[in-house]
Amino acid sequence: MKALVAIVVVGIALLGVGSLLVEDSPYDGNTVSERNPVVPERPATLDGAAARKYLIDYERIRLFNDLLASRGHTLDTNDDVRADCTAVSTTETASDRFRVRLSCHGRIVDTNRLVQPTDFRYTVTYSITEDSLEERALHGYPYESRDELHERPS
After folding, report:
1. In the chain, is it the N or the C terminus that has fewer CB atoms within a 10 Å radius of its CB?
2. Burial status of residue 38 (CB atoms within 10 A of its CB: 0-12, 13-18, 19 or more)
3. What are phi and psi of 42, to 5 degrees?
4. Residue 15 confidence (pLDDT)
5. CA–CA gap between residue 87 and residue 60 (Å, rounded)
6. C-beta separation of 102 from 59 below 8 A
7. CA separation, residue 92 to residues 4, 47, 72, 98, 100 (Å)
8. What is the chain's Cα-based Rg?
9. Quick check: 36 and 65 in contact, CB under 8 A?
10. pLDDT tens for residues 132-149?
11. Model pTM greater than 0.85?
């Protein structure tokens, strides 16, 4: 009898701890989270600083959207999406053309999880002009596909 009680207690404890270790904590209600579908506003004039700022904003939106997609666009009430990017280098490659390399990291923090997943890091390089944007390289990105953003409506 004592062995049966011990097995039940251990089972309940493992179930409780296991629920804190899963990706989506069962202790908060889920809320639907919409992705941001449009690119940030383009700078009026493009120089190195404007290119960096624009691309940091652009990549943060894409990363945020992919983090949401990784959870089926639903988050717990207390989840916090962290999507951060910094410019590693900016090179002027031709007149009004810049190549910007970003280092980014992201994760979803759930206050009700016992163990938080580690954030992931990746690098991405873009070429940008006044009227074009091209992703040139992507290293260490954890998802199979990338979010695509649409131009702002005129």
Report:
1. C
2. exposed
3. -70, 145
4. 47
5. 12
6. yes
7. 71, 9, 39, 4, 9
8. 21
9. yes
10. 999 999 999 999 989 888
11. no
Question: Is residue 24 predicted with pLDDT exceeding 70?
Answer: no
**Residue 7 reports pLDDT greater than 50:** yes
Owner of token pair 């039940």: 8
Q: Which of the pair, 111 or 53, is modelled with greater confidence?
A: 53
Q: How far apart are CA 118 and CA 108, in angstroms?
A: 9
Q: 76 and 30 in contact (C-beta within 8 Å)?
A: yes
For the record, the structure tokens of 117 come out as 């997943």
Taking residues 59-86, what's their average pLDDT? 90
HSE of 112, CA atoms in CB hemisphere, 13 A? 18
With tokens 């639903």, the residue in question is: 74
Please report, as a single letter, which amino acid is at residue 115: V
Distance CA(59)–CA(77), nearest Å, equals 25
Q: What number is the average pLDDT over the span 115-128?
A: 87
Chain Cα centroid distance, residue 89: 21
